[in-house]
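Escalation from tier 1.

The customer reports that the assembly of two entities below gives different structure tokens on two consecutive runs. Tier 1 could not reproduce it. I'm attaching the input and our single run for tier 2 to review.
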Amino acid sequence: MIGEFEELVLLAVGVLHGNAYGVTIKEEIEQRTKRDVTVGALQVTLRRLEKKGFLTSKHADPDTNRGGRPKLYFTLTAYGKKTLQEALEVRIGFWKSLPETILKLN
Amino acid sequence: MRSLKFLRWFCKPEYLVDIEGDLLEMYEKRSKNIGQSKANWLLWRDVIFLFRPGMIRTPESIHSNNMIAITHHNILISLRNFTRNKTAFFINLGSLTSGLVCALLIYLWVADEVSMDKFHENDARLYRVNSTYMRPTGPSMIEWTPSPLAEAMVAEFPEVERAVSMSSFRFTGVGIVSYENKQFKTEGFFASKDFFKVFSYPILLGDNSGVMISKSLAERLFGSNDAAIGKMVEWNNRFWVKGPHIISGVFEDVPKNSTEQFEIVFDYKKMYETDVHSDKWNGGYAKTILLLRDGVNIDEFNKKIAGFLKTKEQQNQGILSVSLYSDKYLADGRIYYVRLFSLVAIFTLAIACINFVNLSTAQASRKMKEVGVKKTFGVSRATLIGQFLSESVMLAMMSLVLALLIAFILLPDFNQLTGKHLELTIDSRIFLITLMIGIAAGVYPAFFLSGFRPASILKGKIMNSSFAEVFTRKGLVIMQFTVSVIFIIGFMIINKQIEFVQSKNLGYDKENVVTFSRRGEFDWNNYETLIREIKSVPGVVDASSMMGSVVNRELSLHNGLTWEGADATVYQTMFPYPPVCHDWVETMGIELKEGRTFKKDLPNEDTKMIINETAAKMIGFEDPIGKIVMYGPDPKEIIGVVKDFKYGSLHTAMEPVFFEYRPINTNIVVRLANGSPQATLEQLQIIYQKFHPGYPFEFTFLDDDYKKLYESDTKVSMLSTYFAILATLISCLGLFGLAVFSSEQRTKEIGIRKVLGATTSGIVRLLANDLVRPVFVSILIAIPVSFFAANSWLEGFAYKIELSWWFFAIAGVIAIALTWFTVALQTVKAARANPVSSLKSE
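Tier 1 run:
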């Protein structure tokens, strides 16, 4: 099982498909969730997900716009995709067994 | 940017590059959209949120240098050296430990001595008033002043904020406090009202309107502080003091580092009722202590008060002066011992350090290869110095642990010897001092060993001991033995002097004399009955009484006297003027030269006087018997001259003494017959208790009292004996180490010599001479030094031994004999070894 924020980060990396690095991931999540994401929380999570094998990373060539620092691009691994799939299924399972009356009340 | 600098400092290096890039990209975007300062602020926020586990690198990588590795290596090498050279290690450990034990004990003692009386809050403004009088032996300063002085000084000198009178010796000291049927021996005195305001003895309960007692006395007498208030006690020290004494307050127990030790304090005014003379301007009944205002110039104040006594009482010739209250303790000769023993501690440590220096440099050849290889690999000299220093510091720290242990074990005995209550507290200073000793011992060997040239060592050139090196080593041995020989001579002279003083013919017979004093509210008129009963006891030879004691002349009267033909200044001199009873001269065994002694049945004996030979000489009459000496307005007729005897301690010269007749005194002296006094003393106890019901029979033998006079000298003599032995022992240990080493180094030489026909004794002489010669030199240096030191110490005695040559000769012989013994122990073994075994290897 992965945590909620971890799931969001994985999804963002998937959405950005090939353009996923620190700044874009942060913006993607902030835009979609309307939540503030700190660099610290994001970076720690990214490294953790990489260590667990959900993500791989690759340095791009040095970029002149960033003080000569290269971007670190993240991509989903097969294991990461599978984990996302499982997380989705768990949710769908929940939704399916939810009594209709509760939804109506809402 | 400062924020990024911070990030670079803490962030894991493998994450740093891209995070920094992300931050910069965001910064650029933000500064375009919302302005630079806000972007800056947001960058800080981001960086601070990055400061979290997972991002922060591990500490090892923060300081990546090899200090730890070097320290580890140094410790390892030192430990290996210790196990490889066990002899040297144990000699160094032993000598440093003994040196440290001695230094620790002395440090505790000195720290305690120096802290005496310093605890008073007003310490810097507390002054003692002294008065100086002329004595036949010269001017003499005493701390006893008239009782009204304190109040008068507060009233007449604006510099004085408060003043206190405390009773002088007559009403101070050990006494017996009793409540109902409980009796305790304790110390106390009389003090005027401001006593607890001037001194910092905190009051726990009540006030000093009546009698004050200490917490522990309150507990012993009444069980608790509260129960003490309002109780009535009786007090009796030299005099029975008329009550009622009602307890009005309790004070905290007096700290150990106070000169005044007391558990009970009475109102000063009570003394006036007991002794009608005590409130006069011409007595010495009070110690007067002043609390001066801030910023008083002491020299000017002393000039101002010098003649103050005379303005109050024409007869009083005392010159007043003040001195800092807390200075008196050390100034009473103790500062001399504090300095002496501090020096002893330093020298003992120095001797121990020298052992380390000598053994390390002598073994240089063993470390040469190590130094050579290390230097070739680029180890700097500083690192090598660090290595050798860490060895000596480690050794010093090991010794400290041992020394603390030994000092802890010895402390109770040391306390008994010095009469102190020292406690071993481990503070940072002790470690700092040990560290410094480690460095002091190691610094010369460290520079010496690290200075080798790697090329010549590794080429196999055997470094011959250079002239300078040998010279240093011998010089250090000479220093060690000079100090040891000085210690030996010193302790011999001190012991001889004290033995001399204690066996000196005093002019009276101090053996078999018992003294005790009368206590309680006794009947003065039954004195004669008491003496008669004492005399009837079998085993009693004679009995009499005097004021004070023959071993303490301060307890008697001193008065100005004059006579026909005396020059005018004589009257200003205070002569010892002890009042004695009839039979006193006979009881004390003092020899009568001419005339007669006081007789019980003759009338007008109180107008007569007996003098000693020195007094007779001073007066100068050809036939003194029947001549008149004026005691104030009263003429006194000389009826007898006794041979000189020692009144007081032998620190002071013989002085003229005048005896007055006083038929009734409280201090009884009894001469017993030779032999076992036990039965006689039991009889005396029965008589004493008949006359003084409820009071214990407490007596002292005169020769014990006499010994007490020299207690501090005896202590010094014992301590100096121990230190002399210790210092010599440490020096010999070092020499033994050198002997072991030099015989090891010369194994081959000895082998060859033996093969070629050298005798064992010849080889022993060869090896030993090198080591014994410096000891000869040190004896030559030590003799004049100790001669001058001994002379200056003996100055303090009026009766002293002659410094004869054989003291020095004996010390020299002891030193040489010890050296020979130490060296022979090792060299004989080396010389007797089979040359085959030493030559066949290699």
